[in-house]
Amino acid sequence: MSLLEIRDLKVCYGGIVALNGISFDVNESEIVTLIGANGAGKSTTLRSIMGLVPLTSGTIFYDGVKINGMETRKIVEMGLVLVPEGRRVFPNLTTLENLKIGGYLQDSKNEQKALEHVYELFPRLQERHWQLAGTLSGGDQQMLAVGRALMANPKVIMMDEPSLGLAPLVVKDIFSIIRKINEEGVTVLLIEQNANVALKTAHQGYVMETGNITNHGPGRELLENVDIRSAYLGKSK
Amino acid sequence: MRIKRNTLLTTTVFALLVVFLYWLSANRMQNGMLVSVLQKGVIFALVAVSMNLLNGFTGLFSLGQAGFMSIGAYTTAILIIPVKSLDGVYYMNGVHPGIRALKMVVADSPAFVQSIFPFVALLLGGLLAAGIAAIVGVAVLRLKSDYLAIATLGLSEIVRAIFSSPQFDQITNGSYGLNKIPTFPEMAWGLIPSLLTPFIVVGFCVVFILLLINSSYGRAFKAIREDEIAAEAMGINLYKHKSMSFVVSSFFSAVAGGLLAMYMRSIEAKTFSITMTYDILLIVVIGGIGSVTGSILSAFLVTIAKEWWLRFFDQPLFFGGWQVPLFRTGFRMVIFSILLMVVVLIYRKGLMGSTEFSWDRLIGRFRRTKNSEGGAA
Amino acid sequence: MSTILLKTEHVTMQFGGVVAVDDLNIEIPEGKITALIGPNGAGKTTAFNVITGGYQATNGRVTFDGHVIGENYPRSKMKKIYNGTYKTLNEHQVINTPDKITRLGMARTFQNIRLFKDLTVFENVLIAMHGHIKAGMLRSTFKLNKEEELMMNQEADKLLHSVNLHMHRDEKSSSLPYGMQRKLEIARALATGPKLLLLDEPAAGMNPKETEELALFIQEIKETFSLTVFLIEHHMDLVMDISDKIYVLDYGKTIALGTANEVQNDPAVIRAYLGVEEA
Amino acid sequence: MSMTTILQHCLTGISLGGAYALIAIGYTLVYGILRLINFAHGDIFMMAGYFMIFALASFPWPVAIIITLVVTTVMGIGIERFAYKPLRNAPRMSIMISAIGVSYLLQNLSTYLFTAIPRGYPELPYLKKIYQIGELSASFVTILTPILTIVLVFVLMILVNKTKTGMAMRATSKDFETAKLMGININRVVSVTFAIGSLLAGIGSILYFTDRMSVTPFSGTLPGLKCFVAAVFGGIGNIPGAVVGGFFIGIVETLLVALGYSTFSDAFTFLLLIIMLLVKPTGLFGEKNVEKV
Fold first, then answer.
1. Does C154 contact B at CB distance below 8 Å?
2. Tally of domains within chain D
3. Contact by Cβ (8 Å): C211, C238
4. B6 backbone dihedrals φ, ψ, rounded to 5°
5. In terms of CB atoms within 10 Å, which of A200, B201, B320, C77 comes out highest?
């Protein structure tokens, strides 16, 4: 049984169909990626899993439990977290406070352990623990957003475009961290525009186009077999 | 066919209204309460409609109505208090010589001028308020939603402070207020009795506002309400149109204020406190934000219910020897506030929502109920 | 050589420490369809907002149809006085509000449809014509400009006919299906009488079939209304189909410029979209 | 005016300012989280005045104070649950109207229950004791108010800046949705905010009315609006800003009254508001928000 099972997920905003009945699975301790051009419905998928967007129909199972309709904080409590698009760190809180708020539901012992772990992964965050998060560079903010999510001791971490707006070198760092987190046993569901990197990193990949899943397979195979380019840049004339 | 029927219905209703008002005028002694609530209702209908123009049609949440009403009320009152009453009114501090001089000129003018002078006074009150609105609009209209609300509320308080301040004693009579204000004048050489005057004035004003709302400018106001950014992108100058709506709304609030002064016969700055703005807001909300007919209907309903029908809430009520609890002074207003909260929280659309009254709908609804009754039987 | 209708010179837009648009130089030839593409967060919508007057550029100049519609140079500080009017502190500054730019002949649509939801289709179109009204408020209220009003009504009807929305004339705009709302938004923009039409992701949320129809529609109105079109789009099929000229933006900078084929095979563009090969 | 008189007025002003500051904090906290002007806040303050009158009629003063504060706090939380929470996703105008509606309801309810005739506020002998400092004389409450205000603000700042709940409040004020993603219970945070605001309004009410002798159903309206202005003046959402604003308005108002412009003292507050919004809309210490199209 998969850790996360999405069945016939359908979401409409007003009259717009954002997700047109998609289904996919995320197996335990895998990295799974959803790729596709902007507006394909990737973010909506993650947001609906977290209970931020009401579903029109469909079901979401996490660890065998149906979680659609649950409050977001209950879902977080069960070990499912989201690193939102655009980082969304709390600019008026310090780096350390941002991390602590990520561990809001943890008791102080677990929080301390998680904090040490995050500092190990991101030494820069320790260096800058006193700095207001709003003043960090884009790359550091992304690190902070990931670190903050890890503070909840998650079983599954979902990331919405972690490479957005970051310089190539930083993107490389982020992906090596993603692999490291995964090696430690955390399941990762990743949304990316940066298809090359994402598919190379992921065990499983799904291609999304306008609210539908159009292709799927193991990451590297998908990269080699499918004309990913046309999903992004259109068919050549 | 249908259009003709609707025009016919509307004309009939208005004709009946006029007949009724003439009858009321002839029998006003026996119907004092009815006359009083209808006149007050029609005055509040005008303020409510003008507040709705701003809040409901232009999307500017303004709470300055009482302030602009007070400008109209004071201007009108100062202008129409008869010369012979001046010393009695301003018995504490005396009257400003300029005002006295102006009044002498009016008193010496031909009868025709004197007969229309009260209307000129209403107009001047309106224009003064409009002018002030135009000036302060430059400052406050750049503010968004709640800031605009609090700034206009503040404005209204500033106006009130000025009217009641001792520094303007000789004009506004400070904290003593003004009295001996003549009631509504007759119109058309007595053909139209004074009882009808507020209805006619308000009628003209509401027709103007309706025409404005249905004009190209009114559509631009609605566009601003719906989406400022899109409206601006469609070539609508935001500041200019917001300012227009603010000025027009202030003008009519002031006219209503002037009428209120004639109705109450005596005014003081306290009358135009924040509570009055809240009362008007209540009327607008109950009637439906964005509906002129809703505001008018609600103004009458609220006024009549508050001043008349629901009076019994404030009286001790006895069943045999048992006194019903709760019924005593103030209970009526509690009921009212609860009603308002129910509308705000549950029936958010009020009586009319943002639609206007139409015969088609009324008849349609009537038919439906009849059909469903028939079906049940 | 066709004439250049819109030109941006060294346009830069900074928010706090973030440079959203960095030294943008765009030339839009009259009568052509030009597209601006780029990955998410590349600064496309910001560029649009600078051009239409929503933002004042931190630096640079925008020229449209012979008018300098926005100009600003470093160290000059801008001051917004109230909604819509700006104080000029520096002779190099030209600041126009969006409404004025629209009246000069540039109309736009929005990424997340911004129709006047509670109003009818017909009213939506009429409002867009209000910017050019000659009568003042009083004249218009008392219906003394009958001819003008009549003309506006006829124009609006004609426009709705020409975009095939006339059967929905008196419906609330929010009750239209999504694709039609997009179409209405374009029709509304056309009602302002533009020379240049800016489309911000017109195909967002559309399926391939609807997108294809939209491509045809854009080309059609371009001909009927002799427009110049400038669009931002993510549906590459649409962009590649209809654009004469494509600018590619990444990190606020122009990284490529050319025809569809040129851009599609440009390594810099592929890198921007699909990421670097090695990681 | 002699130096002593001026100092005397300043002392009164500082004391009034202290009470204003406590009420202003309630506005600033609620606005910070919900972006709502809680029009009913001034009326909560007024109701607290009545609670104290009735509590003191049957209990010794320490118990009465505790009862008053508890009831006021519960009322604040209740109002949010009942009148604001159902409208959290409604347009801004609806929730503002609801706030005005609650204010209207509280005023009418208290007129009904307690009549519009001013009720004498009970004198707490300890608070009313007169002290002589050089040529100045002041009752204990006059001296206590600013000191207590500063202490409470200090405690509040620790709460907001050093505790987990405070952190959650700051996070929620910036970004509702991300706060949810952290597992924060938004409804609880909002309730806590209203609780703190109402508690401080309750304390402010005791200090304020002890100096004013009587309460009417409309006693809360003007002080309420003034305190909102104080919050805007200091920069809405900023606690020290609200305190500075409260003291400033309290002192200026007292001086204006002393100079014989008492009718203008209210007008001044609003003039200050309008000028501030025009010159520096973010207030003295407010942070700038970039508006996105």
1. no
2. 1
3. yes
4. -65, -45
5. B201
The count of structural domains within chain C is 2
Residues 63-92 of C with CB under 8 A from B: 81-85
Strand A187-192 and strand A204-209: pairing? unpaired
CA distance D206 to D140: 13
Determine the residue of chain B that is closest to C137 in CA distance: B217
User: Which CATH number do you get for residue C74?
Assistant: 3.40.50.300
CA gap B374, B377 in Å, rounded: 5
Q: Is residue D50 part of a domain?
A: yes
Side-chain-side CA neighbours of B133 within 13 Å: the count stands at: 31
List chains touching D (3+ CB pairs under 8 A): A, B, C
Write out residues 155-184 of D within 8 Å (CB-CB) of B: none
Same domain, C211 and C144: no
For residues A194 and A167, give the distance between their C-alpha atoms in angstroms, rounded to a whole number.
12
Q: Taking CB atoms and an 8 Å limit, are C15 and D290 in contact across chains?
A: yes
The pLDDT > 70 percentage for chain D reads 97
- Find the helix packing angle between B97-108 and B65-80, rounded to 10°: 60
Q: Helix axis angle, D140-162 relative to D239-258, nearest 10°?
A: 160
Are residue C12 and residue C100 in the same domain, yes or no? yes
Task: Return the amino acid letter for A6.
Answer: I
* Interchain CB contact of C16 with D (< 8 Å): yes
DSSP C119: S
Q: What's the rounded Cα separation, in Å, for the pair C99 and C85?
A: 11
Domains along the sequence of chain A with CATH: 1-79+154-237 (3.40.50.300), 88-153 (no CATH)
In whole angstroms, give the CA distance from residue C57 to residue C60.
7
Using DSSP's 3-state secondary structure scheme, residue B174 falls into helix
The radius of gyration computed from the CA coordinates of chain B, to the nearest angstrom, equals 22
**Hey, are the CB atoms on D90 and B154 less than 8 Å from each other?**
no
Tokens of B94: 């005396």
The count of residues in chain B is: 377
Interface contact flag, D293 C15, Cβ < 8 Å: no
C15: containing domain: 1-105+194-279
In the complex, which subunits touch C with 3 or more CB pairs below 8 angstroms?
A, B, D
- Dig out the tokens for D13 from the structure: 């002003």
Nearest CB neighbour to B344, from listed D94, D228, D270 = D94
User: Which residues in chain B land under pLDDT 50?
Assistant: 374-377
Model pTM score: 0.89
Instruction: Inspect the structure and tell me whether chains C and D have 3 or more CB pairs less than 8 Å apart.
Output: yes
Residue D31 counted as domain residue = yes
Cβ neighbours of C196 in B, within 8 Å: none
Whether residues D293 and C55 touch (CB distance < 8 A) is answered with yes
Full pLDDT tens readout for chain D, 293 residues = 678 888 888 888 999 999 999 999 999 999 988 888 899 999 999 999 999 999 998 999 889 999 999 999 999 999 999 999 999 888 888 899 999 999 999 999 999 888 888 988 888 777 778 888 777 778 888 888 999 999 999 999 999 999 999 999 999 998 999 999 999 999 999 999 999 999 999 999 999 998 888 999 989 988 998 999 999 999 888 899 999 999 999 999 999 888 888 778 888 888 888 888 878 878 888 765 533 33
> Do C239 and C253 belong together in one domain?
yes
Q: Does A163 touch chain C (CB under 8 A)?
A: yes
Is residue D227 situated within a structural domain?
no
Name the residue range of residue D200's domain: 23-219
Tokens of B234: 């469609």
- If asked whether residues C200 and C183 sit together in one domain, one would say no
User: A196, C275: Cβ pair inside 8 Å?
Assistant: yes
**Domain residue ranges in chain B:** 2-6+33-370
Indicate whether D119 belongs to any domain.
Answer: yes
Query: What would the DSSP string read from start to end of A145-160?
Result: HHHHHHTT--SEEEEE
Tokens at C222, concatenated: 């371009």
